[in-house]
């Protein structure tokens, strides 16, 4: 059987291959899926990829699978590890962080101001895939970014560095990296914070994904990935963001919630409401991603249990504390019994509520000469029309729609969360990440397939 495109999702533990055909027609098809253990630790990611294709053949009941092109998303080997360095935490460092997260990065270190020796030591320990330097509005402060660039260029290893700070520093930064014979590792983009109260994260976000694709093929276990993958490779969370942005252009403001085994990601694409924007203390990006590393329903299950408490879990599930302890001790990545499913649903409910509140902004009272005034701070989700569930938990659990309704229902009035009028949609085929990278090749087909998966 021949396909137009296969999309591989190379995860930290599992590699999934999704097959698509008829992409250049009015009826593009998602035909089937295969999966196998990821094989990065075996020294060659292609072992897992080939096994996932074998699984696809078995699932489709065919003798042969051929394809015109293969694309990929990857979160293997820690995904896209980045460190981010700006001038002021609430301004350029925050803007750089938003660009990195939106591209699908896992940020291991954020610094503001001039780098200290302890910061440089942490960078060496992290061994990031990409370093992002920002700092200074255009034609503003210059020295901090220049000094940070000098220190990073002098570090005893080669890593791609993206400079997205004060435009006046471009030539100086080029000279610094040329002096250390690292000019081939430097990428210069538009300032992420060109002037006060203006975010400009999209150019940096795009270049981060391009640099990831260019350098991921040199990562251990990934050296032969281009033997099979012939099209774009982007970080998996960045692919979900691409799908969310594409969908927003068609149906309106939305947020995508992905509760996973280790983390919970939220992607929102909205300008917010005019009423709230008039009272915002600082700008927010239209497309924003947050990742909660403590909210996972398998790897980080015990973190969520501690948040809820065993006693409250027992009360909510009408079970004894002893039964809850038994469920914790025998927790599986994919629940099988009714009690295990109910347990994971309760964990997912907590992950959805907590991550939504962390992602959303809120109201803040400030006292000035004229008395108390109320301002808005953070991301405004009040104009969201659709709440989308993707990922294993929110596409497979029986109570998934009710769980996503908690995003609006958990608001106590102080958070800028969606209203109860927001419609719940489920990525039934669990292919949003694949369609995000597919949109790089065929945007029209990707949009049709996303809407089909969501039941639109």
What do these coordinates show?
The chain is of the alpha/beta class. It has 3 domains: 76 residues, Nucleotidyltransferase, domain 5 (2-Layer Sandwich); 138 residues, Cobalamin-binding domain (Rossmann fold, 3-Layer(aba) Sandwich), CATH 3.40.50; 220 residues, Nucleotidyltransferase, domain 5, CATH 3.30.420. It contains 16 helices and 17 strands. The strands form 4 sheets. It has a 5-stranded mixed beta sheet with strand order 3-2-1-4-10. A 5-stranded parallel beta sheet has the order 6-5-7-8-9, sandwiched between helices. Helix 2 links the parallel strand 5 and strand 6. Helix 2 packs across helix 6, helix 7 packs across helix 16 and helix 15 runs antiparallel to helix 16. The longest helix is centred in the C-terminal third of the chain and has 22 residues. The protein is globular, with a radius of gyration of 23 Å. It starts with a strand and ends with a helix.
In short:
The chain has three domains: 76 residues, Nucleotidyltransferase, domain 5 (2-Layer Sandwich); 138 residues, Rossmann fold, CATH 3.40.50; 220 residues, Nucleotidyltransferase, domain 5 (2-Layer Sandwich), CATH 3.30.420.
How many strands, what sense, and barrel or not for the largest sheet?
5 strands, mixed
Low-pLDDT parts are none
Question: Helicity, in percent?
Answer: 25-40%
CATH class category of the largest domain: Alpha Beta
**Oligomeric state as shown:** single chain
Structural class by sheet pairing and helices: alpha/beta
Judging by the overall fold, what is the CATH architecture of the largest domain? 2-Layer Sandwich
The CATH topology of the largest domain is what?
Nucleotidyltransferase, domain 5
| Widest sheet: strand ordering | 3-2-1-4-10
The geometry reads as: globular
For the termini, the CA-CA separation is 28 Å
Q: Beta fraction of the residues?
A: 15-25%
Structural Rg: 23 Å
Q: Please give the number of β-strands.
A: 17
* Total individual domains: 3
Number of helices: 16
The overall pLDDT average reads 94
């Amino acid at each position: 059987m021949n396909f137009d495109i296969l999309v591989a999702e190379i995860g930290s533990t599992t590699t999934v291959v999704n097959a698509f055909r008829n992409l250049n027609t009015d009826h593009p098809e998602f035909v089937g899926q295969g999966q196998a253990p990821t094989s990065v630790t075996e020294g060659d990611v292609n072992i897992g990829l080939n096994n996932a294709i074998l699984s696809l053949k078995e699932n489709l009941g065919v003798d042969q699978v051929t394809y015109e092109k293969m694309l990929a998303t990857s979160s293997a080997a820690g995904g896209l590890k980045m460190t981010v360095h700006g001038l002021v935490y609430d301004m350029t460092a925050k803007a750089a962080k938003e660009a990195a997260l939106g591209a699908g990065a896992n940020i291991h270190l954020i610094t503001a101001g001039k780098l200290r020796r302890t910061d440089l030591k942490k960078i060496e320990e992290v061994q990031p895939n990409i370093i992002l330097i920002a700092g200074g509005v255009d034609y503003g402060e210059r020295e901090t970014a220049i000094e940070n660039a000098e220190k990073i260029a002098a570090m005893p290893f080669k890593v791609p560095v993206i400079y997205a700070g004060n435009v006046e520093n471009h030539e100086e930064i080029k000279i610094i990296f040329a002096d250390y014979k690292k000019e081939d590792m430097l990428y210069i983009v538009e300032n992420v914070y060109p002037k006060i109260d203006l975010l400009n994260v999209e150019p940096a976000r795009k270049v981060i994904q391009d640099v990831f694709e260019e350098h991921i093929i040199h990562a251990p276990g990934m050296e032969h990935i281009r033997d099979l993958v012939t099209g774009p490779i982007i970080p998996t969370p960045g692919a979900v963001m691409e799908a969310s942005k594409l969908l927003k252009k068609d149906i309106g403001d939305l947020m995508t919630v992905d509760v996973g085994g280790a983390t919970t990601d939220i992607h929102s694409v909205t300008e917010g409401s005019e009423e709230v924007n008039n009272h915002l203390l600082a700008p927010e990006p239209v497309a924003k991603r947050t990742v909660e590393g403590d909210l996972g329903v398998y790897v980080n299950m015990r973190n969520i249990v501690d948040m809820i408490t065993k006693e409250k879990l027992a009360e909510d599930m009408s079970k004894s504390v002893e039964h809850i302890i038994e469920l914790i001790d025998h927790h599986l990545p994919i629940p099988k019994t009714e009690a295990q499913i109910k347990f994971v649903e309760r964990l997912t409910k907590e992950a959805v509520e907590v991550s939504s509140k962390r992602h959303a902004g809120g109201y803040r009272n400030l006292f000035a000469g004229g008395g108390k005034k109320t301002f808005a701070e953070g991301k405004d989700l009040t104009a969201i029309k659709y709440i989308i569930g993707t990922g294993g938990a929110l596409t497979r659990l029986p109570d998934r729609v009710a769980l996503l309704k908690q995003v609006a229902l958990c608001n106590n009035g102080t958070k800028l969360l969606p209203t109860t009028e927001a419609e719940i949609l489920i990525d039934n085929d669990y292919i949003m990440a694949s369609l995000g990278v597919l949109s790089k090749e065929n945007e029209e087909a990707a949009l049709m397939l996303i809407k089909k998966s969501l039941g639109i």
